[in-house]
Amino acid sequence: MQTSAPDDHDDLREALRALCAEFPAEYHRRHGAEDSYPEEFITALTDAGWLAAMIPEEYGGSGLGLTEASIVMEEINRSGGNAGHCHGQMYNMGTLLRHGSDEQKRRYLPKIATGELRLQSMAVTEPTTGTDTTKLKTTAVKKGDRYVVNGQKVWISRIQHSDLMILLARTTPLSEVKRKSEGLSIFLVELDQAIGKGMDVKPIPNMVGHETNELFFDDLELPSETLIGEEGKGFRYILDGLNAERTLIAAECIGDGYWFIDKATAYAKEREVFGRPIGQNQGVQFPLARAYAGVEAANLMRFEACRRFDAMQHCGAQANMAKMLAAEASWEAANACLQTFGGFGFAEEYDVERKFRETRLYQVAPISTNLILSYIAEHILGMPRSF
Amino acid sequence: MKVLVPVKRVIDYNVKVRVKADNTGVDLANVKMSMNPFDEIAVEEAIRLKEAGKAEEIVAVSIGVKQAQETLRTALAMGADRAILIEAADDVGTDIEPLAVAKLLKAVIDEEQPGLVLCGKQAIDNDMNATGQMLAALLGWSQATFASKLEIEDGSAKVTREVDGGLQVIKVKMPAIVSVDLRLNEPRYASLPNIMKAKKKPLDTKTPADYGVDVSPRLAVLKVEEPPARKAGVKVGSVAELVEKLKNEAGVI
Which range is the signal sequence, renumbered to this chain (chain B) (predicted)? Predict the structure, then answer.
């Protein structure tokens, strides 16, 4: 299928497609049905250097930008897989790269590049404070050369397949800071030093087999060298990571969107009813053509968000819009695909129902569509804050 | 030892080939092109020889349109050390004939002096299966075609060939041309760091004139047609009916 994406990265796409082709639909279907982690697939991606795309060459990576990282995510989803199992590594990497100390980079990046360590998890969201991040209640109180963490987090993904986790906690009480965005700090937590030693993990079974958890902190002690950047500036650091996250997820939705359209058009061309292919009917063609146009348009915003992020320009608006547009486009494509397949779309062996459930997530996570609209209304269009 | 690997840019093996409406050839507009799969096996074998310490340098050569550069970059990303592109055509539809390719390769070999040439047994676009053999004849080198196993010994190569009815093991004197078959190995896919490194590896661009070779065609394609569509079969009700039809209708038993 032709797309409007620039062809500068076709060499990367082709190599990725060759790797992804070794993990056919049955593989992803099995992991989807068992809610299990596609360990072999993630290992193959790591071994071939794809998950270290953004790590500088001096630390064993390829020193590429978010554009290339997003292509990795797109191609995983386009091949029928689910990049949700590994996208954490890409956006968490940005936080460590842009704000970590040289010592932290030297210590962790080479091992992340080889796959010896995985940095897949980020703990921001809490049960009572979702998008209202600055109100979060988890605290890290400095005591001597350590921080003592107490509180609770929710929807923290891939803990069981990660060695490191980025944690956002309040280091100065809300009442003592001038702006509510101040006084938050981020820490790089070594999970084997934390689990059972002040941090407990409770998995949340869910609709898409996404590995996600509740975390409980009860006097978890973190050495002060786990602090990333300056104390109290964590909110700003995390925003960078969130823009990367949204852009990468936009790319995943684009990958899903193309997957649905490919799958649906192939089926519509070959499935015959009343002596002719169903794809000959405009009633079948138009929803797919419309969905394709939607995915293509969202893809342009995704590349613009990538371009700005890589040029160190403001990209909050573009990253959020790309995520919203791409999630809506992939959902429309999913719906059109399911309708094209009819009853067969509900059968697991066609993979449509699995991808349908997976792509639906992205209108809710990592930020819901309404909050993106509020952001655009308030921060881009200058309308009064609605909440 | 230096190993030379010729690679060809061909229509991707996954693409459903369509004949042009005017029957002059295959439609190559906006079609995915890739390295000939047999050539990929040849590149892989060269890399394995290098990894085993039996080869020092791998040179990939492609002859065709400018875009064959991408094919060479793929070879470099897999592990070839440098590449030579001979731009011999402007139009993707122009196929350089085996004899012209063999003459150009001979000229490259005269310059490069490799100890071994590993090539695909044939290209999947026109299935000529001729270039390797012609090259061996032009050079006066030994040839071993359809290799499914290759062992380099002192001054010779032991090659297992896939021939009709079985496997034939031969020993050829080096330097030699070995054309490779499907079962020799399974080519690796390029890793991201190697793709990035490949962008910096040397790629020389030449023309047939640089080697004094005339590539104008000696063959004329008269017509290209799709094979006739397969007709529907018949269902038989019993083994007896099947035997009866095979005997009396098809006349095969």
Answer: none
Partners of B74 on chain A (C-beta within 8 Å) are: 11, 14
Chain A residues inside the 8 Å CB shell of B190:
15, 18, 48
On whether the CB atoms of residues A274 and A295 are closer than 8 A, the answer is no
The alpha carbon of residue B76 is apart from the nearest alpha carbon of chain A, in Å, by: 12
**Within its chain, how far is the Cα of A239 from the centroid?**
14
Residues 6+ apart with CB under 8 A from B154: none
CA nearest B15 in A: which residue? A1
Q: Please state, in angstroms and rounded to a whole number, the distance separating the CA atoms of residues B83 and B96.
A: 19
d(CA A85, CA A284): 33
Interface of B with A (CB under 8 A): 30, 34, 70, 73-74, 77, 189-196
Asked if the A120-232 domain carries CATH number 2.40.110.10, the reply is yes
Q: Contact at 8 Å (CB) between B212 and B16? A: no
CB contact under 8 Å between A50 and B193, yes or no, is no
How distant is the Cα of A48 from the closest Cα of chain B, in angstroms? 4
Q: Can A10-117 and A120-232 be said to share one CATH topology?
A: no
Q: Please, which residues have CB within 8 angstroms of residue A150's CB and are 6 or more apart in sequence? A: A138, A139, A141, A217, A218, A219, A220
Q: How far off is chain A from B190, nearest CA to CA, in Å? A: 6
- Whether residue A11 and residue B195 make contact (CB cut-off 8 A), yes or no, is yes
Tell which CATH architecture fits domain A236-380. Answer: Up-down Bundle (1.20)
- Per-residue pLDDT tens digits of chain A, which is 387 residues long: 889 999 899 999 999 999 999 999 999 999 877 878 999 999 999 999 999 999 999 999 999 999 999 999 999 999 999 999 999 888 888 889 889 999 999 999 999 999 999 999 999 999 988 778 889 999 999 999 999 999 999 999 999 999 999 999 999 999 999 999 999 999 999 999 999 999 999 999 988 878 899 999 999 999 999 999 999 999 999 888 889 999 999 999 999 999 999 999 999 999 999 999 999 999 999 999 999 999 999 999 999 999 999 999 999 999 999 999 999 999 999 999 999 999 999 999 999 999 999 999 999 988 999 999 999 999 999 999 988
- Residues of A annotated as catalytic are 245
**8 Å CB contact of B77 and A11:** yes
CATH architecture assignment, domain A10-117 = Orthogonal Bundle (1.10)
> Is there a contact between A11 and B191 if contact means CB atoms under 8 Å apart?
no
- Where is A300: in which H helix or E strand? helix A282-310
The DSSP annotation for A78-141 comes to: HTT--GGGTHHHHHHHHHHHHHS-HHHHHHHHHHHHHTSS-EEEEE---SS-SS-GGG---EEE
Whether residue B195 and residue A19 make contact (CB cut-off 8 A), yes or no, is no
Q: Hey, where are the domains in chain A?
A: 10-117, 120-232, 236-380
Chain A residues in contact with chain B using a Cβ-Cβ cutoff of 8 Å? 2, 10-12, 14-15, 18-19, 22, 47-50, 52-53, 61-64
Distance from CA of A58 to the nearest CA of B (A): 12
